[in-house]
Amino acid sequence: MFDWQELVETAAARVVPADIPLPAVSVITTDTRTVGHGDMFLALRGERFDGHDFATTAVDQGAAALCVDEQMVEAIVAATGGTTPCLCVGDTLAAYQAIARLHRRGFPNLKMIAITGSSGKTSTRTIVGAVLSRHFDGAVLTTRDNTNNHVGVPQNLLRLTPEHRGAVLELGTSTPGEIRSLTALVEPDIAILTNVGPVHLEGLGSIDGVVREKAGVFSKLGEHGSAILPVHLRHHPQIAPSLPVDRVVTVGNAGDGADVEVTYCGGDLTSARVGVCRGGRDVEFSWALPGAHQAMNAGIAFAVAQVLGIEDDCVVEGLAACRLPGMRTLTVEHDGVTWINDAYNANPDSVKALLDWLASASHSCGHVHIVLGDMLELGPDTSQYHATVLAYACEHLPNAGILPFGPLMAKAARSFGLDAFEDIEDLRQHITSHVAAGDLIAVKASRGMALER
Fold first, then answer.
1. What CATH code would you report for 4-99?
2. Reduced to 3 DSSP states, what percent helix, strand and coil does the chain have, rounded to the nearest 5?
3. I want to staple 142 with a disulfide (CB 3.0 to 4.6 A). Which of 129, 251, 365, 410 is the partner?
4. Distance between CA 148 and CA 155 in Å, rounded?
5. Tens digit of pLDDT per residue, the chain (453 long)?
6. What is d(CA 441, CA 453) in angstroms, rounded to the nearest whole number?
């Protein structure tokens, strides 16, 4: 339940009309599709909508209170007949974030984990969430879908209830300062950096810019907070100053000298075996997430377990139950053809990880076809990144059919003598005429390409 006086102070707000009775509010929502009786509807502005236009709809659907911008309050009070209290603020997004931070601080005993990185955020969030759910008997909140930005993170924080004992939140970014500001909302006990690579370069400028931005996840660790990151980034000059002095756990391959060392023992298209060594103890387990990149994410889960004192058996049980959300190496069979849908997003490192996995695990299939779509937001070096990925594919899977899709891939494909596609129907027709039962088709591209079509 939210206290109105706290809301006024936290959001630097005033209540309009001033003398109206204030109802009890336990839920704050920004979506009229989910507003319920007694909720507060907070009107956000977006690129294609303005929540203030839906304030009367929210009231008609049962909203007991509104949070609106100062400049809109008179019109909204008139439209609603002056019977619904409005929390009137200078900026509804800033108010939403401040209220979410206030709500998060109401759970000081909850174990809060924040995750960022250039790739693997959602996989790692899902993997760590599975282990924590096993440890905390399901009382764990994780990021819903892809709500990892300046609106989504507050939305997830406001989902916290007294029943939750842990939370695993994913933090995304595309412009400088976002990770630091989101971390300030989350106030994590454990901050995780999965990796750093070429992503969002149009906004972040360079790899150095990516490193600076991602290091922000360590900026709000309290005196007892812990950092988890790849061992090769432990002493990076732009990361090391942000790390706690003696509460860092590193993850790496066997022989890298990390606190948690990972060995990928191999696998097929649907399962794998992984070895992990931590604290002098060796653990080997099987799970349903093949690929060396996923094995490293499992290593991060063991690092979290090391910080929280979770036993190995509990970690292994959580990992065994873990399944990734859709379009992340989603493997299905249709008419005898194996389809791997990894089209949720793509950057050079994540594409190479997929190719490495296919090179090691697709031997039992017939012909392998790999649709590689454009990788977006890579800045002025985008042509070089696309050419590098195609060269990697040709080198590591020389017998596969490489099918570049989109204008960026098509441009890079010319120097490799590859047939490229810019029309989705042409690509469909090619696949239909060249694929037979027993073959494998893998699909990878940035989200904007919508290759799941």
1. 3.40.1390.10
2. 40, 20, 40
3. 129
4. 9
5. 899 999 999 999 999 999 999 999 999 999 999 999 999 999 999 889 999 999 999 999 999 999 999 999 999 999 999 999 999 999 999 999 999 999 999 999 999 999 999 999 999 999 999 999 999 999 999 999 999 999 999 999 999 999 999 999 999 999 999 999 999 999 999 999 999 999 999 999 999 999 999 999 999 998 899 999 999 999 999 999 999 989 999 999 999 999 999 999 999 999 999 999 998 999 999 999 999 999 999 999 999 999 999 999 999 999 999 999 887 888 999 999 999 999 999 999 999 999 999 999 988 889 999 999 999 999 999 999 999 999 999 999 999 999 999 999 999 999 999 999 999 999 999 999 999 999 999 999 999 998 877
6. 14
- Amino acid identity for residue 224 in this structure: H
Residue 245 CA, chain-centre distance (Å), reads 27
What are the residue boundaries of the structural domains of the chain, listed by start? 4-99, 105-320, 330-449
CATH classification (class only), 330-449: alpha beta
CA pair distance 391, 400, nearest whole angstrom: 13
Alpha helices in 309-419 (DSSP H): 312-320, 348-361, 382-396, 407-413
Q: How far apart are CA 355 and CA 291, in angstroms?
A: 10
Q: Tell the residue number behind the tokens 């940035």, with chain if given.
A: 446
Which pair of structure tokens corresponds to residue 254?
């066997």
DSSP per-residue string spanning 203-257: HH-SHHHHHHHHGGGGTT--TT-EEEEEGGGTT-TTTGGGS-SS-EEEEEETTS-
Other residues' Cβ atoms within 10 Å of the Cβ of residue 105: 10
- CA–CA separation, 351 and 393 (whole Å): 9
Q: Measure the CA–CA gap between 349 and 41, rounded to whole angstroms.
A: 41
Closest residue by Cα to residue 28 from 79, 98, 112: 98
First to last CA, the chain: 43
Distance CA 370, CA 421 (A): 13
- CATH architecture of the region 105-320: 3-Layer(aba) Sandwich (3.40)
